[in-house]
């Protein structure tokens, strides 16, 4: 613990950090496979408090800790390791908020002194320890119309691979940019009912705005993950495709 105590002493004046995390959060998925401790300095002793990782991003994380933990600490070290021994992190930073979230536990925000590398987060995702989504996905394979904002060339049709209350996954022929805004519509599905006016009258055109969060090339084009821009967009797309005849079984 000598090196940990020395590190904590050196961090008594940490840099000013923004409490609002701007980077993507990844939520704990299989927390039983990760062990985490909050290390703080009291006098000459380093005390370790077990915590549970709730979410993590490049700039910080949220951890759950016993409600008996009521210390006001300027700096700390968060130690994260997995049961297989492939990950062993010691992240210096400070507590930026602490609130009661259940009868016996608090949730605390921990701001990292230095950003966590994308490679480490990718490894945690690949191992199934954290995930981008809190909501379950529904597979569909429906054809959707995709339009771009700001006068960019129209994409046209794409395949809606799956959706949840927070976002969608698309496969498309045209490349899109991370951060780009798209408008998704079920117009193609509604238009297929032109031959049956009675059936078409039961279908409504739904539109929803999304923001591209990641893009990767595929053999046939591109795949991208998007998040809904607001609750109205989420409800419109979920309502339209949850009752779709094209929706695949789970």
Question: Brief overview, please?
Answer:
With 250 residues, the chain is α+β, with helices and mostly antiparallel strands. It has helices at residues 2-10, 118-126, 187-191, 197-200, 231-242; strands at 26-28, 34-42, 45-56, 60-66, 76-82, 88-100, 105-112, 130-131, 138-148, 156-163, 167-172, 181-185, 207-217, 222-228. The chain folds into 2 domains: 2-131, predicted glycosyltransferase like domains (Thrombin, subunit H, Beta Barrel); 138-242, predicted glycosyltransferase like domains (Thrombin, subunit H), CATH 2.40.10.220.
How far do the termini sit from each other? 49 Å
- Rg calculated over all Cα atoms: 23 Å
CATH architecture of the largest domain: Beta Barrel
CATH superfamily of the largest domain: predicted glycosyltransferase like domains
* Low-pLDDT segments, ≥5 res: 4-19, 192-202, 245-250
Helical proportion, percent range: 10-25%
Order of helices and strands: HEEEEEEEHEEEEEHHEEH
The CATH topology annotation of the largest domain reads as Thrombin, subunit H
Please report the number of helical segments.
5
CATH class of the largest domain: Mainly Beta
Number of domains: 2
Mean pLDDT: 78
Architecture blueprint of SSEs:
Layout: H1 2-10, E1 26-28, E2 34-42, E3 45-56, E4 60-66, E5 76-82, E6 88-100, E7 105-112, H2 118-126, E8 130-131, E9 138-148, E10 156-163, E11 167-172, E12 181-185, H3 187-191, H4 197-200, E13 207-217, E14 222-228, H5 231-242
Antiparallel strand pairs: 1-3, 1-8, 2-3, 2-5, 3-4, 4-7, 5-6, 6-7, 9-10, 9-12, 10-11, 11-14, 12-13, 13-14
